[in-house]
Amino acid sequence: MKTQLSYKSKYFRWWMLASFMLIFSTCNVLDKEPLDVIPETIVWNDEKLVDSYLTGAYLNTTVLNNEADDVANSSKPFFSIFYVNNVSDESKSTSNFSGNAYQYKVNGLKINGGLLEYWERPYKVIRTLNEIIENLPSSTVSETFKKEKIAEARFLRAFNYFYMVKRYGGVPLITKVQQSTDPEEELYPKRNTEQEVYDFVISEAKEILNDLSQIDDSNWGRPSRYAALALISRAALYAGSIAEYGTVELGGVVGIERSQANRYYQESMKASSQIIGDNRFQLYDQNPDKTANFRELFLTKRNSEIIFAIQHDGSDKDYSGAGWSYDYFQCPFPNGWANGIHDAPYLEFAEAFEYIDGRPGTLDFESLKGKLITIDELWAGKDPRFLATVYTQDTKWQGRNLEFYNGVRKEDGTILTTGSYNGVLANGDQKVTQTGFGVLKYLDEKKDNGNSSTAGIFGSTQDFIVFRYAEILLNHAEAAYALGNEGGALDALNQVRRRAGIKELTSLNIEQVRNERRVELAFEGHRYWDLRRWRIAEDYLSRNQSGIRYILDYTSREFLVEKRLNVDGAVKPPIFESQHYYLPITLARTANNPNLVENPRYK
Fold first, then answer.
1. In this protein, which residues make up the domain named SusD-like N-terminal (predicted)?
2. Residue 440 in contact with residue 395, Cβ under 8 Å?
3. What is the DSSP code string of 335-380?
4. Distances, alpha carbon 139 to alpha carbons 47, 423, 581, in Å
5. What is the H or E stretch that residue 330 is in?
């Protein structure tokens, strides 16, 4: 049986087909379905069908899109692409569609879970990948095709395990297709140690390096050897910091012995060095305007910095359900559903951006008290990445200036906060009661977000970057610093700062390494996991954050600037406790499989 599928449409058709086929879960009896039957839609000797089956695995690896639980199912939280931002110290959620993510930030995470879950879905994907890995060697397809597709399947399997281990610690490593006749200990597997899972991810990626295809127009969006090296670079760095800062518990099911830290840092630095040394990628640096350049990096498809990205062409709008809706929920007002500014960045995040001359970026609100100032003056000399990452008062957007001000000061000094004064509205056109910022990174000004049709909501064409060269440089810098190679760390980190247009450093400490990641990689799904692997989330994620308030002076059209305190709410400030460094396995999963031990301190 043969089916012709266009490259563009097969992603969506196979989404539905794969959802039907991938009915198996793991760590229980897999719903007691027969597990020894190849799906009848698959003919292993047909390259197009095999490729489409693999495409279904990509589609169901939803975490490729900023840690999302789902992006193409109207019965699921398709806006979960923002959850990892909202539980970090980057932003709070202000949308009517904030879902359940923010409640965990202020209420804490309990044993029943619910936050950033990624368990049942990846095991379904892993079963598909195991089928491909097991069946392709005996098929009649070309040897080149076999080699490439098996390598892709192994990459994606390793990628899924990495996204599980960073959530839960050790998880059961399933590397063969389970059958209903398998021994009980295989159908109800125990959790491997965290170290075993990280070692598996790294070794798998290393073994397939030379079998993955090269990047060209025909296979853009598929992983290359550089994507595998990038996975090693990232995963080994995580393992190194967990070994350095974490605690071993449950016999190694969570935690890694400290003696392993340097081994992992060396693995990370070696992989990063290979990418750097091959000269295949460069930091995007096409526009002399540093702010414009950093914005363009995320809007320019297939540019020199992108190692691996998930492509979006706007065609989600042509299919039932939901889809990629980044612009629609993140954009400024007006918005078709009145739900722009999904992520409202905190003032503390804004202050993490230094000034061009290297001064700390903290605002002195005491000196600003009672002082009229223009927005250009307020942010003068700021790291150019700042105004490429956030929008705020007077940011130019689609031919107008955005208005975040909250209140108009009249000639007599009183401040009006409702209605209008002499034709001037008391409040701007944005969400003035929140933090005073929105996320500009990835936003395309050309998109019509006032259109509440399917095309307007799900027609985003922004690719999501999974790996880019700047991260590799920062991974290299962190690993080199951890190994005592400050010179190598400085060189890599200063390349990123030089492209940004800010003063290069002459010496380095760990806080500078961490802050550079915070500002360069903001809203790309890194910050929450960085705080966790460094074991400093209990401090940073248990703080009540701030915003900024702009008050428009009617006479001068300048602004008074105030600090808005406790924007997360004074009654329930954010909370992160020691058990939250690992997500719970949950009562439901441990009930299904009594061999799964729960993570520490969840009751």
1. 30-236
2. yes
3. -TTS----EEE-HHHHHTS-BTTS------HHHHTT--B-HHHHTT
4. 10, 75, 44
5. helix 326-330
Bridge pairing between strands 424-425 and 420-421: antiparallel
On the CB side of 191, how many CA atoms lie within 13 Å of its CA? Answer: 27
* Contact between 100 and 115 (Cβ < 8 Å): yes
The structure tokens listed for 345 are 């960045």
Please state whether beta strands 415-416 and 408-409 pair in parallel, antiparallel, or not at all (unpaired): antiparallel
pLDDT at residue 574 in the model: 92
So what's the pLDDT on residue 214? Answer: 81
CATH topology of domain 1-67+118-191+581-603: 1.25.40
Per-domain boundaries in the chain: 1-67+118-191+581-603, 315-462+544-564
- Among candidates 390, 385, 391, 381, which has minimal Cα distance to 355? 381
Residue with tokens 């995580």: 238
Handedness of CA 256, 259, 264, 265 (dihedral sign): positive
The dihedral over CA atoms of 150, 151, 155, 156, expressed in degrees to the nearest 10, equals: -30
Beta strands 396-397 and 438-439 are unpaired
Q: What is the pLDDT of residue 25?
A: 33
Q: Which contacts (CB < 8 Å, 24+ apart) does range 587-594 have?
A: 587/111, 587/112, 588/112, 589/27, 589/119, 592/27, 592/28, 593/27, 593/28, 593/188, 593/189, 594/188
Q: What is the largest CA-CA distance in the chain?
A: 85
Q: Which tokens in the block code for residue 225?
A: 């050897």
Question: Which regions of the chain are under pLDDT 50?
Answer: 1-36
